[in-house]
Amino acid sequence: MNTLGVGIIGCGNISAAYLKLAPLFKGFKILAVADINPEAARARADEFGVRAETVEDLLAAVDISIIVNLTIPEAHYDLTKRILEAGKHAYSEKPLVLTLEQGKALHTLAEAKGLRVGSAPDTFLGGAHQQARAAIDAGQIGRVIGGTCHIMSRGMEHWHPNPDFFFQPGAGPVLDIGPYYVTNLIQLIGPVKAVSAMTATSFPTRRISNGPRNGEDIPVNTPTNIHALLEFENGAIVTLGASWDVWTHDHPNMELYGTEGTMQLPDPNFFGGDVMVSKQNEDFAKLPASNHPLGIPNEGHGEVQQANYRTAGLADLVQAIAEGRAHRCGLDLAVHAVDVMTSILASGEQRAWVETTTTCARPAPLLEMDARGLLL
Fold first, then answer.
1. Does the structure show a pLDDT above 80 at 66?
2. Based on the number of CB atoms within 10 Å of its own CB, is 299 exposed (0-12), middle (13-18) or buried (19 or more)?
3. How distant, in Å, are the alpha carbons of 20, 126, 299 from that of 303?
4. Considering the entire predicted model, what is its pTM?
5. DSSP string across 264-281
6. Which of 88, 110, 163, 225 could be 156's S-S partner, Cβ–Cβ 3.0 to 4.6 Å?
7. What is the pLDDT of residue 302?
């Protein structure tokens, strides 16, 4: 397999993770970065030994085959469109776009150009979530008929020095953190048929409590407290609670109910963790340790070791191009996830059920041997 040149546009916090973790994978090499702020691009380039470009020069670079879009969500559509128009494959951070119409437009353009579009999140490729997928497919809890998911915290203003965009349209807990949960549910259960939700904006402003802007109030213009029901095509009904208005809670991140038992999954924002299963009336028991390479802890967070393999989705896209197969973090999956999330927000605004208008196939499982094939 030839090594493809990759460029990154957007040199914020997440770009460091991509540049740090990309060398774990084969088939591509990040060669250049760009940003509308040239100083940010130069700083990131110097840090990781790549070249700094203007956005225009990176789009035109002959040694770049794929461009990773790490800009703010409201810029995702316009930049991914430019990437495709420049004749390059695109891989976007989540969410892919902010409206279903934008997603469909990218789908049409990518097909016309014969190019690929991939999108984060790729955390569902992690060892824990693939272990859960295998257990569900093997019938360990029977047919999944329901579940609960909880995305709950006090919000970003307590730790992020510039949290403004989190509280504007295009973000909020549904579009910012929701992609991890919705995408994982789709890969575990299948596509979503309809949603119903109630939404609220609990606080009109938030106060930054860290960094140079400590004490500054910022406006909130998107719902921050959302409770939704998701009806899946297979008949399962899952409750999704997404709130940045909660100090503490004791809900599991994700719990699925089957005809023969219950499964608890770790936070789908991360690659690893324990999967717990209860058969009928039995106590929960941890599934045996998995050898899946994308679940092995490789990064320290204080005293805790976590598995972090961001760029796995990009590596799978590169391999899929070479092999002529579908990539797992695919465009249909990302567009359907956007459909689900925007339908949740529309349902809350309209106070009515909303039917989704897209669907997708479950992405292929990433077996242990498949994952090893992505790694150097």
1. yes
2. middle
3. 21, 21, 10
4. 0.96
5. EE--TTSS----EEEETT
6. 163
7. 77
